[in-house]
Design goal:
five-stranded antiparallel sheet; five-stranded parallel sheet; alpha/beta; 2 domains; 15 strands; binds flavin-adenine dinucleotide; Elongation Factor Tu (Ef-tu), domain 3; FAD/NAD(P)-binding domain; about 450 residues
């Protein structure tokens, strides 16, 4: 049962999306007063259409329910923390095999009604353009959960209190794979012109393999861009399939150029190569360099099988190119989703560089937990990379780098298990067990 409001501390949340609703509910359940600012229905982003909170702007799938998948594991963790989003997702579940798909309208409607009837949550219909006024009062705590389609005014306000380089505006993400799935009998580690430097994994293709690869790429189905994504998307970097369509050799002179490398397996030059670059500190994830793409996810799955070294890989983060504003979090946030330089300002959701509906919602929970700890002068909570929640905390506060990219739930961001387990289902079950134990301990230790 909810506690009665007894507290003078005030929490402001900007944005009643997935992260904002989750954060508001957590703080309210703890008995605190929350001002939840939402610009809808007076003002809409270019993709939001519904008047309801927690709107799913594209797919209605929240991914797999299976505990032996990374997104299933995240669901377990969110359930353990009493997630509002999970509660209403299950209530509005519709058949979708092992995936958790929801009736989007009723899902958002239920959450909106629940939030509106909560006497601890004061919903304020207002578009926030300036966060300075929120952080001036040191007794108030603010969580910015405005999502990836942030207005220019709010973006400017964030830049004003951080720095010019603190926000990225577009995703141009290449597919990523797990290191452990790469077939090294068909790959080798080396940097161009420097065989001593083993920074890149090189995946060679023969002429015959390149021909098949090329033919597939130029005929592959691509995602239809939305009108607000079309204009700027090609400015920074070009999707590789667009480059491929220019001429047969365009990829071989571009991201697949074989120059500066000698294949140690054959002791000769390759016809074409695909280079993989390390994507996280622990080197468990690698991305395909220069392969930012608009190919559909199904096409990317097929394409990866045409690269001999990657034939056993499953893509863990698909290539995308779309508008997505997110913080250069490692520069400005700590692992508690708190701004390094402003103690009463927190962020949550996709704006922090987590990617997808549930990672965003889950960060709302972790941000709210830590915002409350800060307000109460208590030790903040690190869920550790034994859990998906903690792995996201690590991700947003990784070593500052100019190539910071959003991250979804995947096993590559968890800390490795203490033991080697060959069977993948058993291994993933072990991850789930470890996460369950860790979160159970943390909940009791920190009184979450
Ligand atoms: C085009 C597009 C398609 C996507 N498709 C998918 C998909 O299929 N599957 C998936 O998992 N993820 C998808 N995503 C990512 C997904 O949108 C996010 O992961 C998720 O919605 C982020 O949740 P959030 O709470 O951070 O932000 P949102 O859900 O976007 O919520 C932000 C809320 O803040 C409000 N707001 C914004 N600015 C202000 C302001 N200045 N003042 C007051 N209120 C404000 C907005 O109205 C909104 O209600 C997509 C993203 C985009 C841009």
């Amino acid at each position: 049962m909810k506690r009665i409001r007894t507290n003078k501390k005030v929490f402001n949340i900007i944005g009643a999306g997935l992260a904002g609703c989750e954060a508001a509910n957590y703080l309210s359940q703890k008995g605190y007063r929350v001002n939840l600012y939402e610009m809808k229905p007076d003002s809409f982003s270019c993709a939001h259409k519904s008047n309801y909170f927690a709107e799913l702007i594209c797919s209605n799938s929240l991914k797999s329910k299976s505990l032996t998948t990374a997104s299933g594991l995240l669901k377990q963790e969110m359930n353990m923390l009493g997630s509002l989003i999970m509660k209403y997702a299950y209530k509005n579940e519709i058949p979708a095999g092992t995936a958790l798909a929801v009736d989007r309208e009723n899902f958002s409607k239920d959450i909106t009604e629940y939030i509106n009837q909560d006497s601890n949550i004061n919903v304020i219909s207002q578009r926030i353009n300036d966060i300075n006024t929120f952080i001036e009062n040191k007794n108030e705590y603010t969580i910015v959960a405005c999502g990836p389609l942030i207005s220019d005014e709010l973006a400017k306000s964030i830049i004003d209190i951080t720095s010019e380089n603190s926000l990225f505006f577009y995703d141009a993400i290449a597919p990523t794979v797990l290191y452990e799935d790469i077939d090294f009998s068909n790959a080798y580690m080396a940097s161009r012109y420097n065989s001593e430097d083993k920074s890149y994994i090189n995946c060679p293709l023969t002429k015959e393999e390149y021909d098949i690869f090329y033919k597939f790429v130029v005929n592959a189905k691509t995602v239809q861009l939305r009108y607000f994504e079309e204009q700027k998307i090609f400015e920074g970097c070009m999707p590789f399939e667009v480059l491929a369509k220019r001429e047969y050799d365009a990829l071989r002179f571009g991201p697949m150029k074989p120059i500066g490398l000698t294949n140690p397996h054959t002791n000769s030059k390759d016809y074409a190569i695909i280079q993989l670059r390390q994507d996280n500190i622990t080197a468990s994830i690698y991305n395909l360099v220069g392969f930012q793409t608009n190919l559909t996810f199904a096409m990317q799955d097929e394409l990866i099988k045409l690269i001999p070294a990657l034939k056993n890989c499953k893509i863990i983060r698909y290539g995308v190119m779309h508008r997505n504003t997110y913080l250069n979090s490692p520069f400005v946030l700590n692992k508690y989703y708190q701004m390094q330089s402003v103690r009463n300002l927190f962020f949550a959701g996709q704006i922090t560089g987590v990617e997808g509906y549930l990672p965003s919602a889950s960060s709302g929970l972790v941000s709210a937990i830590n915002c409350l700890k800060e307000a109460c002068d208590m030790k903040k909570v690190d869920f550790t990379a034994n859990t998906m929640l903690g792995a996201f905390q690590n991700h947003i506060s990784t070593i500052p780098n100019k190539n910071y990219l959003p991250m979804n739930a995947n096993y590559g961001i968890l800390s490795p298990l203490g033991q080697y387990i060959r069977n993948k289902s058993k291994k993933y079950a072990e991850y789930a067990k470890r996460s369950f134990q860790t979160i159970t301990q943390i909940i009791s230790l920190y009184d979450i």
